[in-house]
Fold this sequence. Notes:
The protein is of the alpha+beta class. The protein contains eleven helices and 23 strands. Helices cover 30% and strands 29% of the residues. 42% of the residues are buried.
Amino acid sequence: MRFSRLLIPTMKEAPSDAVLTSHILLLRAGFIQSSGGSGLYNFLPLGKITLDKVRAIVKDELDKAGCNEVHLPMTTSLALWEETGRADKFGKELLRFKDRHDNDFTLSPTNEEAMVNLVRQTVKSYKQLPLNVYQINWKFRDEVRPRFGLMRGREFLMKDAYSFHANREDMEREFALMEETYKKIFTRLGLDFKVVEADSGAIGGAGSKEFMVLADSGEDTIMVCDSCDFGANIEVIAEDEKVCPKCGGGLSQTKGIEAGHIFQLGTTYSEAMKAEFLNENQKLEPFVMGTYGIGVSRLLAGIIEQNHDDKGCIWTKESAPFSVDIIVAKAKNQEQMEAGEKLYAELQAKGIDVILDDRADKKTGFGVKVKDFELIGMPLAVVIGNDISEGKVEIIDRESLEKEECSLESLVDTIVGKLA
Ligand code: ATP
Ligand code: MG
């Protein structure tokens, strides 16, 4: 894509109500913008591209694990919520409204009821089990204190999966598979994370784990073992506990951003909603369930909390809106512009996501282009400047900010190598 054609309103300063680094940087770099109401954001082109990239990784790994993608309406009949008693329990986070016929509805904050309703209409026999159905869809929670941008919005993108089983052992098998699948997703996204034992909260059920993106700004306090992979949210372990219950090693306290949560749910929802299947002996039994969430839009904030410097965002390879920014220093110079166009076509032919900074207006000089590159945080920039007449360009690595000269002949191979 061409910078000159994309709506990328970068800013020197963020609005003063933004305090968290990722919120400030996502606003300043033109990924998101407040849409007016608190906790509601417009995703601008860069934000939408990045959100779609993260979403695609989540989908890819879930599909590989055998999950079924579906799409439910964001609007759910409150009658479904009454079947489980959660219409009362969920409280004010559940936004309710009526249609013209006076029927009660809610904007889904999570979709256990709606998904159980989907499955009870379709799955009748143990032969159709196990089944894991998921969607990547907008959720609405009327949070008491929406804040920190995408970290705690009111409307946010969640991947929510629900699994259905004939017995507990099979559900536990799927729970372990989802834990492994989540690890693959978080690893591909380039995140430093920790899986911790967690409280099951309002969703209910026994046995749950959270995926914490490690960051000092995280709202959760967790205890992690220095010697093994054990970790626990302080909601389930005493804050002064010093010894790891798994291996006897030392525990230390750190902060995390909850980006995913997996639950062993059991039969609470299926019993309440009479969601049953015929077992091998032709007897009706409630489905044994698991439920698995990932905060897809929160992940964007998490990636930036973990990867930034004083100049801006530093997106990880798989999350970056573009892998390479071709900066044409003087877009009015024909030789530079032609070299930029040629490289742009060559990189695209290699399947690399590339943006060509072809801006030629007076206000957008070379310095502005470099500043925007640093603020937006794509992994690499190629600067095409005066040295192009000698067949030379400069490559900038966003993370280290190191610059290196490169000849035109070896440029494409060098870039491909750096992105591998
Ligand atoms: P939190 O404790 O942060 O409020 P939660 O326990 O209410 O989260 P879940 O019900 O487990 O969240 O939802 C699944 C995932 O959705 C969470 O792990 C988180 O990544 C994301 N999420 C939850 N609430 C929000 C929100 N208000 N804004 C953005 N993402 C959210
Ligand atoms: Mg949770």
